[in-house]
Amino acid sequence: MNLDGKTCVVTGAAVRIGRSIALGAGRAGANVVVHYGTSKDEAEETAAELREFGVGALTISADLNDSVATAEAIFDAARDAFGPIDVLVNSAAIFENAPLVETTEDLYDRHQNINLKSPFFLAQQFVKQLPGDRRGHILNLADWRSRRIPPDFIAYTLAKAGLAAMTEGLAQQLAPRVQVNAIAPGAILPPPGSDPEEWKSRKVPEIPLGRTGGPDDIAAAALYLLQSDFISGEILHVTGAEHLSGP
Ligand SMILES: NC(=O)c1ccc[n+]([C@@H]2O[C@H](COP(=O)([O-])OP(=O)(O)OC[C@H]3O[C@@H](n4cnc5c(N)ncnc54)[C@H](OP(=O)(O)O)[C@@H]3O)[C@@H](O)[C@H]2O)c1
């Protein structure tokens, strides 16, 4: 898809990976709906940077823990601002660790709601609003852990495994009009609040390419998938080969 003049909704687009994808889409000529949860100032900065590319940008705050109502609200606002939406990027997520016996219902439900249920109902809203004569693209941010299941982060991994399954199922259900792909990132950015140096020194030995990635690596992969007219149902690993050798 040529993104020039198209409109993308990117969740979690104020900061980090979502921001890089949003800016990549804007650089390619797309209007961007910058969804955020709490990072208001950063969302406005991302939107301002997008407008410097000469594209439209709208910020929308919505809590993805309330999946169905939020999905409707995001697409209502996005459509009012730009008309039909061509691309949905599900990037927002949470990443919390707890062993089975310490997993509360709240932790489990939040991972399901934010990391899986919201992408599902956002995809539903996306398809409902897409005019019959237009093509579309959904891109999900999964994790290599969703394909090579580790023992930890179990609630997170279950939700991301669901997102990978959703990608493959919807790629078939929504063809030929809508392409559905995912990126499975490896070590790109340390989890919010963690020590970046400690994280890096722990992760690098596990990565065959000998370094961690960066948000621009994910944005480049996102642009590659979104600009393709023939890739669908793909889960693209961007991990420095950690998914082949990691613990
Ligand atoms: N970072 C990595 O190395 C890595 C590795 C593997 C997979 N991934 C995946 O790649 C994607 C992007 O990663 P990231 O590290 O950039 O993500 P992140 O910083 O952990 O989260 C992205 C954004 O999600 C939003 N969010 C969380 N809970 C929300 C809620 N209830 N309602 C609305 N928004 C909410 C937050 O927005 P606000 O700040 O506005 O509240 C947050 O900034 C995620 O899906 C992640 O699982 C990342």
From TrEMBL:
The cross-references to InterPro entries, in alphabetical order and at most eight, read: NAD(P)-bd_dom_sf, SDR_fam
The record's Gene3D superfamilies line, in alphabetical order, gives:
NAD(P)-binding Rossmann-like Domain (3.40.50.720)
Q: GO molecular function terms here?
A: 3-oxoacyl-[acyl-carrier-protein] reductase (NADPH) activity
**Which E.C. number(s) belong to this protein?**
1.1.1.100
Q: Which Pfam family, an example, fits this chain?
A: adh_short_C2
Q: Does the keyword Oxidoreductase apply?
A: yes
Could you list this entry's UniProt keywords, alphabetically sorted: Oxidoreductase
User: Does this entry carry the keyword Nucleotide-binding?
Assistant: no
- Source domain of life is Bacteria
By sequence similarity, the record places it as follows: Belongs to the short-chain dehydrogenases/reductases (SDR) family.
Instruction: Name it.
Output: 3-oxoacyl-[acyl-carrier-protein] reductase FabG
